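so im writing up the methods section and need the 3-phosphoglycerate dehydrogenase record in one place, dumping it here so i stop losing it
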Amino acid sequence: MKVLVAAPLHERAIEVLKNAGFEVIYEEYPDEEKLVELVGDVDAIIVRSKPKVTRRVIEAAPKLKVIGRAGVGLDNIDLEAAKERGIKVVNSPGASSRSVAELAVALMFAVARKIAFADRKMREGVWAKKQCMGMELEGKTLGIVGFGRIGYSIAKIARALGMNVLLYDPYPNEERAREVGGKFVPLEELLKESDVVTLHVPLVEQTYHLINEERLRLMKPTAILINAARGAVVDTNALVKALREGWIAGAGLDVFEEEPLPKDHPLTKLDNVVLTPHIGASTVEAQMRAGVQVAEQIVEILKG
Ligand code: NAD
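--- predicted struct ---
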C-alpha cells in the first residue's frame, strides 16, 4: 500500500503509517499537475488545508480509497467526487480543541491586562504604567457562544480561574454544562451579563455576522470580546465602531473576515485590540494529534 503525504505532517504520524507497512511518499503542497502525476498508484492521500484534491486528481487515482485531512475543514477536497467513487474522507476535528481554547484564554488575559499594548510601549521606550490599569478574571462572568468541543474546553479552564460561566448554544448539552458549572441562557442575556464573551461557533448561514452592531450594543462598556472561531461571525465594521466609541472595552481576535488581515486595516490602529494571525491550532501538540489521528484512521481503513 502506498500513501502520498502532500503536506507537512508530524513525524509520529509518518511512523504510524510506516509501522503499518505502508510505503510513504512525501511531496510538500504539490500543484494539481504534480498531484495528478503522483496519485496514479496511491491508496491514500494526506493533506492539510492545502493542497486541493480536485475531481481531476481523484479521477487520476484509480486505487485511491481514503483521503485524510490532518485538521478540520474539508473545503479543499472535492467531497462529491470522492463520494461518487466511494472514497472515504477522514479528519481530526478534536485534535486542536485544547490549543484553540488556550489561545482564547491567552487573548483574554492579554486584553484584560493590556499586555500587547504594554509590550509595544516598552519597545518605544515608554513606561506606560498609568495607561495599563487592568481587570482580573476571577469572579468575572465568561459568556461562551457555541458550547462544542472548544467551548467546553474553555469552560473547564474558566472554572479553574474562578469565573462564572454562561453558555449559549441552540443544541444545549446540559450534562456537560453541569460538569463545568455553566448555565445556558439566551444570547441577548449572555451578551448583557458577561464581562468576557468568547465565540466558538462554526461559520454557517445562521452565524454569519451573529455579533452585529445591535448585539455589540448590548455588551457592557467594560466587556471584552474574543473571536477565535471565524472572522465573519463578527461584523468587523461594527466591531471597529464599538472599539473606537467605547461600547466595549477591548477585543482579542485570531480570525478575520479577510485573511491575511490587510496591512493598515482599522483594527491595527486600535490600542484596545490584540491580534494574532489565525494561530489557534498552531501548537506542536495539536499538529501531532491531528497527524496521528488521521494516520491511525487511514491504517484502520486500508487494513480493515
Ligand atoms: P463543535 O462543532 O464541537 O462546536 C460548535 C458548537 O457551536 C456546537 O455545540 C453547535 O451546536 C454550536 N452552534 C452551532 N450553531 C450555533 C449558533 N447559531 N449559535 C451558537 N452556537 C451554535 O466545533 P469546535 O471544534 O468547538 O470548533 C468551533 C469553531 O472553531 C470551528 O467551527 C472553527 O470555525 C473554529 N476553529 C478555529 C481555529 C483557529 O485556529 N482559530 C481552530 C479550530 C477551529
